[in-house]
Amino acid sequence: MAKTVKDYIRTIVDFPHEGILFRDVTTLFADARGFRMAIDQLLHPYAGTRIDKVVGLEARGFILGGAVAHQLSTGFVPIRKKGKLPGQTIAQAYTLEYGEAVVEVHDDAIQPGEKVLLVDDLLATGGTAEAGIKLVERLGGVLVGCAFVVDLPELGGRRKLEAMGMEVHALCEFEGL
Fold first, then answer.
1. How far apart are CA 56 and CA 69, in angstroms?
2. Which residue in the list 23, 60, 80, 158 is annotated as catalytic?
3. Could you tell me what percent of the chain has a pLDDT over 90?
4. Average pLDDT over the chain, rounded to whole?
5. Treating both helix axes as pointing N-terminal to C-terminal, what angle do 60-72 and 32-43 enclose, rounded to 10 degrees?
6. What's the rounded Cα separation, in Å, for the pair 130 and 46?
7. Residue 102 pLDDT more than 90?
8. How many helices (H) does the chain have, and how many strands (E)?
9. Contact between 15 and 22 (Cβ < 8 Å)
10. Which residues of 81-110 are buried (b: 16+ CB within 10 A; e: fewer)?
């Protein structure tokens, strides 16, 4: 039987806190076939769609987003934690299950009207993705979709993004937290 993307992802119990089942995509990245499969499947729904920029969310979204942008022959834009980008930025605060955080993007990274694909490894509560979407929209970018390797449906991120009018594509789902 052929392996799926999900087969390459390991689960680490009680990380980073007791009771958490951490879905570790580094094992997917480390396998050439698995990594290529993931990139190809992330791209598939957007074949034939104009995409001007791929946005990757820190940090594993950089790995995936860079590879997707390369395959599309388009630009890549990192959305980073506050204070990590050297140029003029705009910021967006968001809520985490354990507090608040802020992400930033260069204020000239996306031009008005550019079509943007947002990419990250994991969709949980949707807070980071929502912040990324808001940054793209504040710069005038138009989101064509949000692509993730893993969706944790019980945490409601997909519902949150879809309620914002976003198209969400995930390669696999895992039950539990």
1. 10
2. 60
3. 93
4. 96
5. 70
6. 20
7. yes
8. 5, 9
9. yes
10. eeeebeeebeebebeeeeeeeebbbbeebb
CA gyration radius, the chain: 16
CA–CA separation, 64 vs 71, rounded Å?
Answer: 11
Q: 80 and 104 in contact (C-beta within 8 Å)? A: yes
Calculate what percentage of the chain has a pLDDT beyond 70.
Answer: 99
Flag whether pLDDT at 109 surpasses 80.
Answer: yes
Catalytic residue (choose from 33, 36, 97, 159) = 97
State yes or no: is 154 an active-site residue.
no
Q: Any catalytic annotation for residue 23?
A: no
Tokens in use for 128?
A: 């980071």
Among candidate residues 120, 137, 135, 131, the one with its CA nearest the CA of residue 93? 131
